[in-house]
Amino acid sequence: MVAIEHKLFERIAMTSNTGTLMALVLAAAGLATGPAAAHGDKAHGQAKSTAVKKEQKDWGVAGDAKAVKRTINITMSDAMRFTPELVQVQLGETVKFVVNNGGQVMHEFVIGTRAENDQHAALMVKFPNMQHDEPYMAHVAPGKTGDITWTFNRAGDFDFACLIAGHYQAGMVGKIQVLAPSKEGPHKH
After folding, report:
1. Cβ atoms of 148 and 137 closer than 8 Å
2. What averages of pLDDT result for each successive group of 10 residues across the chain (189 residues)?
3. Would the N or C end of the chain have less CB density within 10 A of its end CB?
4. Total domain count for the chain?
5. Global pTM value
6. Preceding omega of 84 cis (within 30 degrees of 0)
7. 174: domain range?
8. Is residue 187 in some structural domain?
9. How far is Cα 12 from Cα 109, in angstroms, rounded to an integer?
């Protein structure tokens, strides 16, 4: 029992994601039994709760539906690909991603940095039934559609991915470029 607790503590210490940390603690305590969005579980298709957690991330923050100026449609396939694989947004833009699962298996759309997605994907291999539901994640059952409203308030290159075990490793990833306004103003002669 002590060895198991020690290994769990090591895994918890490796993660900086509060949601992942709570999921691991609840799973270890045997308390993660509700209909939360567990990978591989049919509960993935359930709607997100109405209270969205507005936590600043390196890649932005959960957006308000009223602030959406553009909708971006993303299709996920069983070929382990997203269409499109590259999305460009402007710094400060709030977009609604409408994510369609055109395949026959569960897929997800998770926005993050490469490092965050690498870390999360590694945890998903070890804990394929890990439960979590963050505003930057959409778990979509076959033939269904999900959505994410996100404000990109930091410039840079970010990733989106399907972190279900095996999908990420098969290359189910894409890029989001958040473009800052040009600092070059009108040229003076």
Report:
1. yes
2. 38 41 40 38 43 83 95 98 98 97 96 93 84 87 97 96 93 97 61
3. C
4. 1
5. 0.69
6. yes
7. 36-47+55-179
8. no
9. 24
